[in-house]
Structures are given as C-alpha cells and as structure tokens.
C-alpha cells in the first residue's frame, strides 16, 4: 500500500520554542492514524503544517504525493479538515454550509447537490438539512463539519481533537461515523486526541510529547511492549512494602494514589505468590491489562490524564459560552 | 481565473445569505436611516438655523446633510462588514475558507463586494426617502449616486479588511470603531462644511476617502443648484472626486488583499 502522508524530520519553531522537534512518520492509505499527546505536545502544530495553514521551519511533508509547502493548493484539494473549534457559519442552514463548501472546491452544481444528500444521510442529519446551524447541538455541529470535510471527496480527512467537549455518548457516535466513512469512502484519517480511550480506535498511534514522537505502533502492540499486567497493591495499614517488593522480586514500584503500582509478566500466577509470601501485610491486590495510559506513563514519566484542561479549552466548551 | 471568480461569488453569496437571514439587521437597516432623518435632520435643522451658508444661498440643513446621511450609512455598514472578518477568524467560517484551494485575494474581494451589496440595499431605502429632505431625484441620478456609493463602500470595506487582517484579537475592535469611524465621518464634511476649518483638519480630510465620496454625491445631487450654492457645497471638481475615490479603492483593495493573504 502507498503512503498517503509522508512526514520527514519536521521541525517548527515559535521564536525560541521548538514546538515540533524532528517528527517523521508515514500514514498508509485507508488507515486511521492518531496523534496522542497532552495539550501543547505539538499535535495541533503538526496538523496545521500538514493542512498548509502553517509553514514548517524545517523538514518535509507530503500529502498524496504533493509537498505541503510547494504545492499547497494541490494538497488542499486532497484533504478535508475538521477543526478543533467550530468553523461553521451558524447563521446559515446545514445545506447552505455544505453548498458553499462545494462551490469553493469547484464542484459542479449537480455534484454538490448529490453530495449534500449523501453526506447528510451519512451523518444522520438529512432531516436537519434546512435548519439553521445555530440551533444545532455540539454533536450535530461536529457531524456536520465531518460531512462538510468530505464534500469534495478528499483522500485524507484531518480531525483535530474531534470529540473534545462532547459527552461520552456523542463521542461514541462520532467514532461510529468515522469507522463507517472509512468503510464507505475508503478514506485515510489523521487525527489528534488527548483521550486515551479514543486512541484505541486508531489503527496506529504516535505518542507525542514535547514535539517528539516517543513511540509509534498499533495500540495493541504498544500495550504488549510494556509487558505483562499491571498490579496495584494496597498495603495493610502502616506497612511500607515498596522496598520489600523491589528486594524480593526485583520490581520497579511506583507509588500512585491508588496504591503501589508495578508490572509483572504473568499477573494471574504472581498474585497467589504475593499473597502467600506477604500475606497479612497486604490489604488488597488489583490486576488489570495495561492501558495506553500506562504506555504513556512509562514513556514520559507522566500520566496524560493528569493534564488539566487549559483555560482556553474550558472557556471554549463552557456550556454558558455566549455567541456574538 | 475561473477559480478566482468562483471564490468571489461564493464569498459574496455567503454575505448575502447571512444578510437575508438576519432579520434584526434588515429592521436596523430600515430603522437607522429613518432615525437619522427624524433626529439628526429634522431635530437639528429645527433647533437652529443653518448659519454656515453664505448669504443668498437658500439651503436647509437637511438638504445639506442628505448626501452625508447616505455616506454615513454606507460607511457604518462597510467598515463593520470589513472588520467582521475578525469574528469569522475567531468563531469559525474563515478557517474553513482559508484552507480551501482558492486565492486569498479573491476572498477579500468577495467580502468587499458582498458588503457593498448590503450597503447599497441600505442606501436604496435612503434614496427612496429623498423627498423628506426636499431632494429631488431622477432615475438616472439614482443610478449615478449608487455607483458613487458603491465606490465608497468598496474603499471602506477594504480598509476594514486590511485593519482586521493585521489585528490579532477582537479586543481592539471597539477602539477602531471609535477612533477610526467617527473621525472618518466628521472629517469628510458630511456633517458640517469644511470651508473654515483649521489647516490640520483640512490636511487630514484629504486622506479620508469619504471626503471625496461626499463631495461626489453633492456634485450629483446639487447639479442643478445655483453656481454660488454649488461652490459652497463642493471642494473638488467631480472628476477629481471620482479619480481619487477610484484610486483609493485600488490602493486599499491592494492593501486589504495583501494583508489578508499574509495572515496565518
């Protein structure tokens, strides 16, 4: 399969700050590829460069064979974009928003009208065709933006934090649409997210932190690479089991809010051993499969979920946000 | 070239659709000029005699003001449309347009044409109210007036686009409206004759596109007036007004398109 997105040693500086620091990767045709990282990791900067909205300081990026710097118009024709913030005209109807998009991309009127029907059908908004966007919920707007991004049948769809600010149910629904359109339109999807659960939906993910890719693989393999299971042990009152565990089993123990956390190869058979040898000094033992959170933690030494929403983000998605 | 024309049309269409959708704007459009007439025109001319006119010139303040009111409505509508691209950038639609495979200058031009269309609609209502100001219009005259108003609107919208493209946030918006729009209006001679003003004011007014616009409108409206009246009302030959105004449209258009293309 051919690579639809090829990125080679991409660098972007904002003054003295290096936001993207030598990023390289390739995305294959038909893949759902995710950029996972905390706010400020360089995800949005990378996506902006790929969408021709920002010029890189160094490195190369090609979309469908076209250089983003040298042939921006050719790249733009091949990509659809769903921005992090609303980019619909909320005084216009759903159909009008799509119609203007079709005009801008030079589609013949007949094709525009056909695509409007098809796309609204796909995102289940056909009944809202003539409704003014102002009356739409956050989830509906997002779906309409996805429909709009697909109007001109692009090869690649970029989604910048597509589900931020949406409730879990809507978030799941958005993912259903993304999977469906991959099946029906055979499109390549490039997305950024800082939700771990969401990254699980991707075929491959790149974990990015401080502008660098820390790991790149399928979610399954990333978790496997961590090795074994995650055990959280809560010691009985007063017992300091950390050093004991390290001494007895050579384990790397991290104290967390829930208890002492460590990884072992075969957790299910390790638990009886623990119970037999440390017995009364243990209050409880909890075993689980590693998650992408654990992957991120082991790669960066920080948990992504500790990241608080930025002020701007909270403002942006506050339910009382007033429109102009 | 086809792409550029299509882009201009798309952006123009969007402005037009938005305009039709916003009832409050249409009501404001009819209400605002009426307000000018009732309060500014009738009120002021009733309260004080129009003393600026030289002896022998028989002119009411309302007649004097009428071209100024036309210019004012076009000024407000146009500058607001131009600067509104800040909102578009912050809250949406502009991002969508900026990633489309279209030339940026065509977006700026589409915006200016859209704004001018809306401004001309408003001006048409004012033209229909001309009898209230004892101004007599003929159909060909209306056409010429609309053509001049169109030039004014283009110049001012492009000015707004140029300013908005250089502004990072919306915070400066109010300041621009206060420190740009009002001076543009007062310096144009729309409200009071600019015959006896200090030299610095006279110098500034030469840079105000609205000065030439108002001057051109007066030439048209008072074409049949006594030469003495006309000499009091206008400052430049009609052809100068048109040339300068057209030049300003081109320069501001170039600046607006250039700044707009360079953002993000």
Supply the key terms:
A: 324 residues; alpha/beta; Rossmann fold; Alpha-Beta Plaits; 6-stranded mixed beta sheet; 4-stranded antiparallel beta sheet; 26% strand; disordered C terminus; B: 264 residues; mainly alpha
Structure commentary:
The complex is a heterodimer of chains A (324) and B (264). Chain A has 324 residues and is an alpha/beta fold. Chain A has 12 helices and 14 strands. Chain A folds into 2 domains: 3-219, Rossmann fold (3-Layer(aba) Sandwich); 228-289, ACT domain (Alpha-Beta Plaits), CATH 3.30.70.260. Chain A has helices at 43-50, 72-78, 94-104, 109-122, 138-150, 168-185, 196-199, 219-226, 242-249, 267-278, 292-300, 311-317; strands spanning 3-14, 17-28, 32-36, 58-63, 66-67, 79-82, 156-160, 188-193, 204-209, 212-217, 229-235, 254-255, 260-264, 282-288. In chain A, the strands form 3 sheets. Chain A has a 6-stranded mixed β-sheet, with helices on both faces. Chain B has 264 residues and is an all-alpha fold. Chain B has one domain. Helix content of chain B is 76%, strand content 0%. In chain B, helix 1 (2-21) packs across helix 6 (104-128) and helix 7 (139-166) runs antiparallel to helix 10 (209-221). The model of chain B has no long low-confidence stretch (mean pLDDT 85). Chain A binds chain B through residues 51-54, 72-74, 76-77, 79, 81, 83, 85-92, 96, 100-101, 103-106, 132, 148, 323-324, and chain B through 2-3, 6-7, 9-10, 13-14, 17-18, 21-22, 87, 91-102, 264.
Structure described in brief:
The complex is a heterodimer of chains A (324) and B (264). Chain A is α/β, with parallel strands linked by helices and 324 residues long.
Shape of chain B: globular
Helix content of chain B: over 70%
Strand order of the largest sheet of chain A: 6-7-8-3-9-10
State the oligomer: heterodimer
Overall mean pLDDT of chain A stands at 85
Backbone structural class of chain A: alpha/beta
Helix content of chain A: 25-40%
Strand content of chain B: under 5%
Calculate Rg of chain B over CA atoms: 19 Å
* Model regions low in confidence, pLDDT < 50 over at least 5 residues of chain B: none
H/E element sequence of chain A: EEEHEEHEHHHEHEHEEHEHEEHEHH
In CATH, the topology of the largest domain in chain A is named Rossmann fold
Global geometry of chain A: elongated
Spans of chain A of 5+ residues with little confidence (pLDDT < 50)?
A: 306-324
């Amino acid at each position: 399969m051919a690579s639809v997105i090829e990125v080679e040693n991409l660098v972007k500086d904002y003054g003295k700050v290096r936001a993207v620091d030598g990023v390289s990767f390739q995305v294959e045709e038909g893949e759902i590829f995710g950029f996972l990282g905390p706010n400020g990791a360089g995800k949005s900067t990378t996506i902006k460069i790929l969408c021709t909205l920002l010029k890189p300081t160094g490195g190369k990026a090609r979309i469908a064979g076209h250089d983003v710097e040298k042939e921006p118009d050719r790249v733009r024709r091949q990509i659809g974009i769903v921005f992090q913030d609303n980019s619909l005209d909320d005084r216009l109807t759903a159909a009008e928003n799509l119609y203007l998009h079709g005009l801008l991309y030079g589609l013949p009127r007949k094709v525009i009208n056909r695509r409007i029907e098809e796309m609204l059908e796909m995102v289940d908004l056909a009944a809202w065709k003539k409704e003014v966007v102002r009356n739409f919920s956050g989830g509906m707007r997002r779906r309409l933006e996805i429909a709009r991004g697909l109007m001109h049948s692009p090869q690649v769809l970029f989604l910048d934090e597509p589900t931020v600010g949406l409730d879990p149910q809507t978030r799941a629904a958005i993912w259903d649409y993304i999977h469906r359109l991959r099946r029906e339109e055979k499109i390549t999807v490039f997305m950024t997210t800082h939700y771990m659960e969401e990254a699980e939906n991707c075929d491959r993910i790149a974990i990015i932190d401080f502008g660098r890719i820390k790991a790149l693989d399928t979610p399954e393999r990333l978790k496997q690479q961590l090795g074994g299971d995650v055990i959280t042990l809560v010691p009985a009152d007063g017992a300091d089991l950390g050093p004991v565990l390290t001494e007895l089993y050579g384990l790397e123990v991290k104290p967390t809010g829930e208890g002492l956390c460590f990884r072992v190869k075969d957790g299910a058979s390790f638990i009886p051993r623990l119970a037999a040898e440390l017995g009364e000094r243990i209050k409880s033992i909890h075993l689980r499969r590693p998650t992408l959170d654990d992957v991120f933690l082991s790669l960066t030494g920080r948990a992504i979920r500790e990241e608080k929403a930025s002020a701007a983000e909270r403002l942006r998605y506050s339910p009382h946000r007033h429109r102009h | 070239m086809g792409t550029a024309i299509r882009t201009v049309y798309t952006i123009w269409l969007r402005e037009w659709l938005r305009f039709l959708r916003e009832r409050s704007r249409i009501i404001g459009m009819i209400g605002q000029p009426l307000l000018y007439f009732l309060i500014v025109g009738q009120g002021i001319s009733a309260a004080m005699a129009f003393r600026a006119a030289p002896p022998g010139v028989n002119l009411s303040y309302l007649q004097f003001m009428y071209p100024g009111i036309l210019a004012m409505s076009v000024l407000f509508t146009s500058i607001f449309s131009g600067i509104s691209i800040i909102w578009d950038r912050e809250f949406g639609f502009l991002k969508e347009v900026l990633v489309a495979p279209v030339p940026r200058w065509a977006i700026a031009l589409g915006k200016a044409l859209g704004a001018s269309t809306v401004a001309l609609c408003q001006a048409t209502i004012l033209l229909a109210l001309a009898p209230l100001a004892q101004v007599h219009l003929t159909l060909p005259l209306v056409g010429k007036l609309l053509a001049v108003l169109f030039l004014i609107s283009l110049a001012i919208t492009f000015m707004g686009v140029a300013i908005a493209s250089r502004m990072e946030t919306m915070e400066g918006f109010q300041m621009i409206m206060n420190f740009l729009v009002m001076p543009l209006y007062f310096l144009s001679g729309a409200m009071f004759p600019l015959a006896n003003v200090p030299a610095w004011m006279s110098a500034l007014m030469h840079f105000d596109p609205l000065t030439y616009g108002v001057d051109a409108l007066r030439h048209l409206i008072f074409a049949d007036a006594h030469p003495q009246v006309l000499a009091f009302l206008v400052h430049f030959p009609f052809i100068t007004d048109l040339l300068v105004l057209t030049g300003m449209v081109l320069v501001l258009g170039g600046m607006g398109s250039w700044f707009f293309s360079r953002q993000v």
